[in-house]
Specification:
With 201 residues, this protein is mainly alpha-helical. It has ten helices and three strands. This is GntR family transcriptional regulator.
Length: 201
Amino acid sequence: MSPAHVLEPTYRRLKDALLEGRFRAGTKLEAMRLADDFGVSMTPVRDSLNQLVGEGLVDLTPGEGFRVPLLTEQALRDILQVNALLLEQAPDNDHKSLTINEGSNDTRGAYADRLARAFRDIAASSGNRFRVHLVERISDRLHPLRELEPVIWPGAPHALEQIERKAQQGFDGSNRAVRAYHQHIEDLVPALVGRLNQQTP
């Protein structure tokens, strides 16, 4: 295992590159080349890649190595369905909303980052930490695709503003905006997947 002072920045740098779509879907991630690019040994790169496999941001196939996942239309529909269920399901009234200070109510930044924060805050309103964790993992997985949403859907920024406003009302108040968002994205699945898998960073 790599020392934390080497592993953490290597992991963060690689994860940021994946979230920002710097690697085309299906690209093979070669540890040696990445190590050269990052100026570190192969060990922290391999450790980081294995950690990202666990987060669903990298695929590992025996005999083939690490790759950026390809996103199929069915896979995206499955992810959207789970995300919608996590965000729309009524909370247990015995649970109090979780306090998440980082980035809450912050409407600055890129579209995908703002959407991830809004969804995280809605999930936190349920009082369920595991729900928050799952929503955050989904946001990471869909980050490159969400950056394409405003390109394909001109109404995306307005939909985001609606979700952000409703997120401040808590779990119940957000349902309508979240449902409308997911229904629209469902209609755009073919266009989004095609654009994501064909684009060259």
